[in-house]
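Epoxide hydrolase 4
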Amino acid sequence: MARLRDCLPRLMFTIRSLLFWSLVYGYCGLCASIYLLKLLWSIGQGTRADLPAGRAGAPAPVLERPLPGTHCYVRIKESGLRFHYVAAGERGKPLMLLLHGFPEFWYSWRYQLREFKSEYRVVALDLRGYGETDAPIHRENYKLDCLITDIKDILDSLGYSKCVLIGHDWGGMIAWLIAICYPEMVMKLIVINFPHPNVFTEYILRHPAQLFKSSYYYFFQIPWFPEFMFSINDFKALKHLFTSHHTGIRGKGCQLTTEELEAYVYVFSQPGALSGPINHYRNIFSCLPLKHHMVTTPTLLLWGEKDAFMEVEMAEVTKIYVKNYFRLTILSEASHWLQQEQPDIVNKLIWTFLKEEARKKD
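Tokens:
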């Protein structure tokens, strides 16, 4: 009997793991089937479905104009990868490191590069696999451990031991993990539209609505097909994310211009440019939930209430994982793309948070 009691916890863990992976792969298959049916439906209706084609020639005009910062590159000794970033502000000032989401690149932080360069060395990074940063071929090169180590190595290469860390969407996921694993590196943590990773994994299993909103996480587990779906019809799916009524930027005055949208398409239309970003997601289920999860860094969480991908309730729950000063601001009628849609408000809230913490120290 005692032996049975000892085996029971392991048996329950095995059963839960089997159920979890059954859900993951079952939902992967369902999502793939739905996307395939959509493609076949569009073809059956006579809708033109152009095959993928890389964009030739010079970058989009908006990327050739005077930029909010300077293009820079750094090669990491340990991994051998070359990272691209755009930097603004004087060297030697405190570092503010900006981590973008999907499908974005450094340009999504253009408003913040201009705003915070007066007091910070602001660095908007192209994450591993994105933009002009090197993109390893294999899926295993995009595990969360690799992405966390990237940020640590970049700080070392830039000559800093700590920074103000800001992340949006998937960059928010990485920012949370850095604050958890290397709290000494993060002076202040600011996350935009991404909950604490454990909140995300627990919530998604209990709330069908969030499971549906996160269907792309499961769809991205499938080899090559997601890249294909994003590429057809001149990257229509990519444009749709930023422009549709449901998922796109909601503020009329802040919607991406034609040239800005073309910049995103140009970056992701380069040969192999989608595989790296999607490979980030192909490792997530093997890394979560976290064993160590408490955040001890002062934290600001900003959230667009009309986020089409994340339930706002997750923002409220996140505070239980922060054992320090925590501030949550939810912006009504704002979308997932918060720092681009409402840059003035976002910048003001960030300034307030940074100054507030400085006054506390004084």
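The chain is about 45% helix and 15% strand.
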